[in-house]
Amino acid sequence: MNSLSGKSVLALCRVFSSPLSLPPAIVGAVRVCHSGVNSKGKVFTKKRGYDITRNPDLNKGMAFTMEERLQLGIHGLLPPCFLSQDVQVLRVMKSYETRSNPLDKYILLMTLQDRNEKLFYRVLTSDIEEFMPIVYTPTVGLACQQYGLAFRRPRGLFITIHDKGHIATMLNSWPEEDIKAIVVTDGERILGLGDLGSYGMGIPVGKLALYTACGGVPPQQCLPVLLDVGTDNRTLLDDPLYIGLKHKRVRGKEYDDLIDEFMQAVTDKYGMNCLIQFEDFANSNAFRILNKYRNRYCTFNDDIQGTASVAVAGVLAALKITKNKLSDHKFVFQGAGEAALGIAHLLIMAMAKEGVPHAEAVKRIWMVDSKGLIVKGRSHLNHEKEEFAQEHPHIKTLEEVVETIKPTAVIGKEGLIPFYIYLNSSKSVTLYSVHSLCFILSSQTPLFLQIVDHAYKQGIASWYPEPKDKEAFVLSQVYSSDYDSFTLDPYSWPKDAMKVQNV
Question: Active-site residues (predicted)?
């Protein structure tokens, strides 16, 4: 019996108020024992009994068949009921939809991830549009603020300033050996919420969940890391329930030495191809760290480079509508933080491909921060902002900047709102969501395969020999939320070979 798709299961859950009200035909279709057989075949584990049901990588709940329960020694540890994964999704969704508070929904899903990882990802991928705002932005921000109260079970590696000199030992505490991707934060600039210290762990955990749900990266190959060097958040320091180090942030050489040791320890253990993604570092460290390591390690800063790639992809897509070149436009940015500066730098690189000199490209980019237009001669400009300071009288508000500069595109970010592009025409203004445009682009398989082809042509691919069928190869590496089978591989010898010898 073919199982229902995630979308179908979700739709059923919303149409029928309880499993008992499902039509008999539907119950018969989905209430079956999951065979556990998938393209990846059977899985062997030496674990038995309670260890199976308490391991989220192995646990299938009531989807274990009778044969599996007997062989794994878990018969009696589960209710005498056999459910398909589709029915399990229905049960989760029924519980999910009784919760109106986003934080309660977040806790339910994270608890599921801690209990049954494959079911968690089956639920998540059944409706990415529904669940992404819960497991990541914006609900993850609320979860980080309440992390001390919402904390249920350790997920990720907490490395502190006091562990300096022993980070390699810390990495040995992590149970998985084949790590391909690490998301690391020091918690100083969590989303638009500021310094949350150790509570920032929710960000690497949530981001890596998206690596799996959207990118197909096996969760066992992902490692969330929180570098705890203290916090300057007085509310947290005074809170007896705060779970991080209770002292002011360590800065300067001691901080830099910790980052250096972390980068070296990671590559020593997991190899130079292990991706290290920096997430939610404060501006004062983000650009400096990125420039220091970008050519030495497999690393990137998501707030600077990741957001930039999404926004510039939207701009390039919009050019298909305006039917002109990037260098024909004048850009005004509302905000001059990591994201805005990252987008600006990538726009300059894109204009360079059109043959525009660097100095000319910079003149097409105007930045507005909390103090107004960034212009030459303004005091207290950091190095990153100073690069985009224009020769122009000071202007205080965005509205005045738009009226005076007359840009053809405005790129802005306000709190947790995504970037938008405004394309001016003679009679009207059209609003395009970069976020949507990006997902339209990334959903096109030929585009993705072009990226793979480009990697091999440029000699920057890390897998050799080059696969003949790249699409098949990529799909073979994608994580599947289908349950594995734990039944033994039964076979027998010839009767003569098994004859018992007697005295």
Answer: 136 (proton donor), 207 (proton acceptor)
The CA–CA distances, whole Å, from 479 to 136, 214, 268 equal 20, 10, 26
Instruction: Give the per-residue pLDDT at 415.
Output: 34
Do 116 and 197 sit in the same domain of this protein?
yes
Across residues 166-173, what is the average pLDDT?
Answer: 96
Q: Is 409 helix (H, G, I), strand (E, B) or coil?
A: strand
CATH number reported for the structural domain that contains residue 335 in this entry: 3.40.50.720
- Asked whether the predicted pLDDT for residue 453 surpasses 70, the reply is yes
Contact 386, 362 (CB under 8 A): no
Q: Are 167 and 225 in contact (CB under 8 A)?
A: no
Is residue 170 a part of any domain in this protein?
Answer: yes
Which run of H or of E encompasses 367?
strand 365-369
Ligand-binding site membership of 369 (annotated): no
Any domain includes 70: yes
Residue 409 main-chain phi, psi, to 5 deg: -150, 140
Instruction: Indicate which CATH number applies to the domain containing 275.
Output: 3.40.50.10380
39 falls in which pLDDT band (50, 70, 90)?
A: very low
Regarding whether 191 and 316 lie in a shared domain, the answer is no
The whole model's pTM is what? Answer: 0.82
Of 403, 418, 434, the residue that ends a domain is 434
Domain hosting 327: range is 306-434
333 falls within a domain: yes
Check: CB of residue 140 under 8 Å from CB of residue 209. Answer: no
Angle at CA of residue 351, ends 349 and 354, nearest 5°: 120
The residues pairing with 422 across neighbouring beta strands, listed in sequence order, are 431
Give the catalytic positions in this structure: 136, 207
66 pLDDT band, cuts 50/70/90, is: very high
Q: Is 280 annotated as a binding residue?
A: yes
In 10 A of CB 499, how many CB atoms?
A: 9
**Residue 242 shares a structural domain with residue 371:** no
SS3 letters across 206-240: HHHHHHHHHHCCCHHHEEEEEEECCCCCHHHHCCC
What is the distance between the alpha carbons of residues 155 and 157, in angstroms, rounded to a whole number?
Answer: 7
Query: Of all residues in the chain, what percent carry a pLDDT higher than 90?
Result: 63
Sequential DSSP letters for 421-435: EEEE-SS-EEEEEHH
Confidence band (pLDDT; 50, 70, 90) for 314?
Answer: confident
138 and 248 share one domain: yes
Task: Return the pLDDT at 208.
Answer: 95
Residue 86 located in a structural domain: yes
Same domain, 189 and 295: yes
* Co-location of 106 and 125 in the same domain: yes
Position 448 scores a pLDDT of 66
- What would the DSSP string read from start to end of 236-256? HHT-TT--S--SPPP-THHHH
Of 434, 450, 473, the one marking the end of a domain is 434
| Average pLDDT for 156-162 | 97
Q: Which of 484, 472, 478 is nearest to 219 (CA)?
A: 478
